[in-house]
Amino acid sequence: MAARSDTIAPRHRLRHRVSAFARAEDGSFVILTLFFFAAIFLTGGVVVDLLRHDYQRTQLQTTLDNAVLAAADLDQSLDPEGVVADYFAKAGLADALTDIQVTSRINSRAVSANAELSLPTMFMHALGVDDLGGAAGATAREDIRDIEISMALDISGSMGNHGRLGYMKTAAKEFVDKMLLDGNGNPIEGEVSINIVPYATQVNAGADILAQMAVTHSHGYSHCLDFSAGAFRTVEMSPTTPYRQTAHFDPYPAIPDRNDRRFHDRVSEGRIQCRTDASSRTLFVSDDRDALHDKIDSLQYGGNTSIEIGTKWAIGLLDPQMRSAVAALPDIDEGFRDRPFDYDRENSMKVLIIMTDGENTTQLSMKPAYSGSNLSDIWKGYDGSYLRFSVQSSDPSYYFVAGRNEWRRDPVGGSSAERMTWAEVWAEMPLAWHAYYARAEQVNSQYRQYVANDWYSKVLDSIGPNEKDDRLTALCSAIRDRDVVVFTIAFDISEGNSKLLKACATTPNHYYNVTGSQINYAFASIAGTINQLQLVE
């Protein structure tokens, strides 16, 4: 019996141990289950932290992108740095903004900004990660590529002194190259257009442009316009606005011997108010380097100085109302027939450059009654091979023969004589010859000088320097109300005499007072300011 009991006892102990082992496994499964649950929870927490971080990072980058784009807008009048800061403040990210850089030039603006993010973690700190950081950066840049330039260049007589015209030609051609060639010397096509407006007493606009305008008192001898005082109070130049054509006349005394009454002194090109030489003619809306260089090389000095007229034409050729007239010109490139652009067109810029070596001087203009197609009291006829001019008196049956000091019942030439228009009169004879031989000699000798002088005042208007300065001041004031960048160059003139130019420039930094070869620096500086800048970021 004892032996059996001993056999049963070990079996009981085995069952006990197996049961204990089983109970011990149940505890391990619980621990393992808890471990897996904690791992899943922590993984989900990490995902939550990462999603929060990604959302914040996306918001940061979006805010940064929008901020720099708004700040780089060239139409943005607010301070660029303030614009960026305001975007971040409104997004609740003001503390994230670390750096703002603004580079502004006359035809571009680049804005760069950087921001840093630090997000406290909710779950990852259990892994020893207390926060998630990140950095973002953005750069936006807006460039103006379509540029319209008008250059009003003084070619008055004083430009022949001290080599000024030569210096100006060299500088102006280099300016053209800087505007029309890229950094590798390749042409920039279809972006930059240049008007060259040479001016002296007047601006020779040429027949083609005047044919597109509402010109009164017209003639075909020369092609300038007399602007009214009111025309200088606006930048506008419209093809439908009536403008009086400048009379083609030689106003200055040119009679060496009044005992020599022969008509041999014709109108002198060097003395007429509106020059006709091709070198003085305006060149419109071009990016042809050869044509622009040829125009500049051809310039010749002569005449008085009318800065306000040169400026009026130069700014007028930037006025969008002239678009139809410019488009109708025969030599305009097809790509430029939509110029001048509207003032508010995006990504475009209008630039006006005014260069002079002196002050405004006197301008003479013919009164309307003695201009254009109005009939004169002068008859033109031939006495054999000699050209004669007969002045019809108040008694239409008598004619005074100019230069012959004789009266006749009929004009020289009889029925073949032709009555002249005033435009034809001034194209044939200088005003001085006309005043003395056609008018003064009709009276006794002691009154002749008086009659001649009186005739001058009867037919001529004189616009003096002070009035011309007032017109320029008014025009510059009107330009400031438009989106036009104005550079002025005072060439070889004193600081005191260049106040008008300084006041006309967009800012004092847009005004240059130079002498001699320094004009190269002025034009180079202007080109450097407005030249096309390549986007590198």
TrEMBL record:
<keyword id="KW-0812">Transmembrane</keyword>
<keyword id="KW-0472">Membrane</keyword>
<keyword id="KW-1133">Transmembrane helix</keyword>
<protein>
    <submittedName>
        <fullName>von Willebrand factor type A domain protein</fullName>
    </submittedName>
</protein>
<feature type="domain" description="Putative Flp pilus-assembly TadG-like N-terminal">
    <location>
        <begin position="27"/>
        <end position="72"/>
    </location>
</feature>
<dbReference type="InterPro" id="IPR028087">
    <property type="entry name" value="Tad_N"/>
</dbReference>
<feature type="transmembrane region" description="Helical">
    <location>
        <begin position="29"/>
        <end position="51"/>
    </location>
</feature>
<dbReference type="Pfam" id="PF13400">
    <property type="entry name" value="Tad"/>
</dbReference>
<dbReference type="InterPro" id="IPR036465">
    <property type="entry name" value="vWFA_dom_sf"/>
</dbReference>
